Amino acid sequence: MRKSASRRAAVRLVILGVGLWLVLGGPSAALAMDWSGICNAFSPFCVIPDVWGEVRFRPLYATLTEGRQTVPDAGISWDLRRDFGLVNSSIFLDLMGRVQVGRLSVRTNINLRDFQGSTRFRNIPNQYLSDARFEYSGWRVGCDLDIAQWRGSRLGINADTDLYSPIFQEAVQTNQGGKKMVGNGATTLGFHTVINPPARWRGMSIMLEGRARWSIAGADVTDWETSLGLMGSETFLGALAIKGGFRRTVIQFHDFLPVNGIDRLNNFQAAMEGWFGEMALYY
Question: What SS3 state is found at 148?
Answer without folding.
Answer: strand
